[in-house]
Amino acid sequence: MNKLLKSLPEDARKKLKKKKQPSWTAPMLATLTDERFSDPDWIFERKLDGERVLVFRQGNRVRLLSRNRKLLNNTYPELVDAYRNQPDGSFIVDGEVVAFQGRITSFSRLQGRMKLTDPEEARKSRIAIYHYLFDLLFLDGYAITQLPLRHRKMLLRKALKFHGPLRFSAHRSGKGEKFYKKACKAGL
Fold first, then answer.
1. Span 64-105, pLDDT tens digits
2. What phi-psi label fits residue 181: left (phi over 0), alpha (psi between -120 and 50 degrees) or beta?
3. Residues annotated as part of the active site
4. Total number of domains constituting the chain
5. What is the pTM of this model?
6. What is the dihedral sign for C-alpha 24, 147, 34, 54?
7. What CATH number does the domain containing 143 carry?
8. How far from each other are the two terminal CA atoms of the chain, in whole angstroms?
């Protein structure tokens, strides 16, 4: 067990399952609701307008997969590079690839990039992309989806280096209604 996993509280470590890294795992999906609420047991994250992308890394092998299992390595080659340059280890992370129009994520801008399947053409495009990560599903031989999301996000924050196109998706605890109002005012 790696140092990060050993740093978890004992009750969390007991939930870890040693296993071979899967070639696919479905992303955890949000539940849509019209209700706004606050709850100290919930975390609240910014909604991003992009493409859901899971990253599967084993050693030097990196695969970017859409939630429909479409291989996206040629569309986002700078992400492949960024994940290859991470510290040694294996992991599965979940996040959203976005492009910005000003300070707001823009799916229509991202679509210009999503159409590209030649890595050189993608690198030369003037559409900068970023991968906002919000979940860690597997780490160094352990499935960690049984852990609470707060623990997984803490591990994610420490397991990867966030620079270049990689971004950590921050969250707010408990005050969902306040976060919702701020997001609306900001045009998010």
1. 999 999 999 999 999 999 999 998 899 999 999 999 999 999
2. alpha
3. 47
4. 1
5. 0.92
6. negative
7. 3.30.470.30
8. 40
